[in-house]
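Q: What structure does this chain adopt?
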Amino acid sequence: MKSILFTSAIINRNRVKFLYGFSEIVLEPYHMNRNKNGKKVLFGRIIGSSEIKMYEFEKMCNIRVLPKERFSPMIPIIPRFN
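A:
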């Protein structure tokens, strides 16, 4: 069920809100995958930050997709060296 929610949020570029441990996280989801231990993880950027972090599915609860809050993905620009 979590995979379906996050897949639709990634495709539609919707922000999500969930509890991670004891913290409430509002996130712009970018990618889902499995870590080296085989656990499902979500990669995303917290609002107001430029860092992309990894979150384990098993530590998430109370997931909500925020359909009215859309985002544009941050594309890093790498300077070229001559």
